[in-house]
Amino acid sequence: MVTKKTKSIPNIKVPMKEKVEAWGMSSFSMSPVFRPETEEEIKELFVWANQTGTKVALRGGGCSYGDASTNTDGIVLDLTRFNKVLDFNLKSGVMTVQSGARIKDLWETGIENGFWPPVVSGTMMPTLGGALSMNIHGKNNFKVGTIGEHIKEFTFLTAKGDILECSPKKNSDLFYSAISGFGMLGCFLTVQIKMKPIYSGKMKIDPVYVRNFDELFAYFEEHYKTADYLVGWIDAFASGKSLGRGQIHKATNLKEGEDPDFPGNCLLERQHLPSRLFYVIPKKWMWILMRPFSFNFGMRMINLAKCIASILVNNKAYYQGHAEYAFLLDYVPNWKFVYKPGSMIQYQVFIPKENAKQAFSEIFTKCQERGIVNYLSVFKKHKPDPFLLTHAVDGFSMAMDFPVTKGNREKLWSLCYELDEIVLKHKGRFYFAKDSTLRKRVMESYFPKENLKKFYSLKKKYDPKGILQTDLYKRVFLS
Q1: Is-cis flag, bond preceding 341, omega within 30?
Q2: Where does the chain cross the membrane (predicted)?
């Protein structure tokens, strides 16, 4: 690697710039990337950045869809090498890890001992530090809340260089703001997370076909108290009386003693995602086979085919491994390549339960009117959480994948601005981990003023020189 020495601190070498891409591949920055492996290296980089005025973006697994970990005017700290599992107490279920450990590391360490992460995203590749920065949620958010609610404590390097221990009782202001603070106050170092006990390597899955939004919402409201996980897929091309049709997957954990194959079915070799479809076609080829359908009519046909398949398996329960159910985004490696060369963005919104059905109906109808229909829609139920910059509401979310092309980019952003107004009208919120289009005016409209005032005060306290910045922060908070 070609490097050059800085004048401020002789032992810091700045790498040549490399392409740092958003997960959706629709935006990127050209930035020097540091890959520290120790706390001392991270702290040294923070000291150097404060002395030189260099802007720093923290990056974990790079799983945010937009520009949350790119940095056009500064450097990027990639923390994926700071990734050790330090301790796992099998009595308490508390696991201690460095913040660069991935969700993959958590579940692979835990499952053979009868534990599973309490909250996981649709991919196993985010780091725990990144997951806390965005305060991720899962398909069980309505039941257990966000990942931040399962953290016992963490050590935290503030932007100005102090290392603090944080918990709900110790430095609690920082605990509840660093979690959800999208990396703008400092860097998580070590994290203690309470894992969830499981008594089977499989869960019972109930697939249910719903004909419209009425049936979708009715099923969630009727069954969420008896489900461990609930997620809905929606056909965004359907209209009229079929608006909101799709399929729900309800998952229920088996209770202690119900699975005669436990703990054998928790062995890693029985939990990893299969590498071939139907034991024949390599999964890594699947995106190539899907590529010819990556246009409106093709995706309309795929959605229709999925609806027909959903009807055929309606209410036919089956059993599925935890990883198979949880990590849908990892099931087909590189599936996002289907959307190349412009790739995609995700637009995810959270709407209070009393307004959600009307809001989502308006959003889907508006997309159809504009001729820009999303290719994948995922529906979940949520509950509020206590974190400062939370996206959660007592209600529901819809995550919508839109392909980005040279021809539609301007129109797509314009559509998202129109959808913003629908979301604000219905008192909804947005999610920094998925965002590519949010504007400062919209952000200031949905966050409570007291939350923003506190965030800016904490930013000034813990990052007085403003070294921690990302393209998202500059776009949404500084623009």
Answers
A1: yes
A2: 174-193
